[in-house]
Amino acid sequence: MTAAQELAEQLASKPAYALRTTKQQVNAALEEMVHSRDYASDADIFAFAVHDPESRVASARYLKSKNKG
């Protein structure tokens, strides 16, 4: 018996509702991951902000305000 057949038998012995619900949850999580590729990552946003003059001025102003105590 192959590993795939053994796994299929193990899964077949589980409650159908639990398997179906688990599959739905995994598919939903995968769908979220796929759609999240459409958005810029935090690293991309940070990299842009580091080189953007307006963002640098705003960051410096913020840091200065925090050091005033």
Folded structure, characterized:
The protein folds into 2 domains: 3-36; 41-69. The chain has 4 helices and no strands. The chain has helices at residues 3-12, 16-36, 42-51, 53-67.
Please specify the SSE layout and strand pairing.
Blueprint: H1 3-12, H2 16-36, H3 42-51, H4 53-67
In brief, what are we looking at here?
The protein is mainly alpha-helical.
Q: Give the beta-strand count.
A: 0
Radius of gyration: 24 Å
Biggest sheet record: none
Order of helices and strands: HHHH
Give the distance, in angstroms, between the N- and C-terminal Cα atoms.
70 Å
What is the count of structural domains?
2
Multimeric state: single chain
Shape: rod-shaped
Structural class estimated from helices and strands: mainly alpha
- The residue-averaged pLDDT reads 85
Strand content: under 5%
Helix content: over 70%
| Low-confidence regions | none
Report the total helices: 4
